[in-house]
Amino acid sequence: MTVLLSSGCDRASPEAMLDNYRERVTYVLEESTAPDPPAAGAIPLFPPRRDRWRPQTDLRQGLFEVLALRHCNLLSLIAERNSSLGKVMRPSQQLVYEMRFLVRLRDCRQQLARAQDPDVELRLQVETIYDIKSRELPSVIWNAIYASSEMESNFSRGEPPLPLIPDQSIEASLASFTALSSLQTLITTPDWQLPAELGDIERHYQVLEANRFGSHWLKSLWLLTHTLEQTARALDKREQRFALCPQDRPTPKARILFNVFSKYYVGEVQPYMARVDQSGRRWKELHQQLLGSLPATDAMLDYQNRVFADDNPDSLWQRYIAARNHHTQSWQAILRRCNLMPGRTNSH
Question: Is the separation of the CB atoms in 24 and 256 below 8 Å?
Answer without folding.
Answer: no
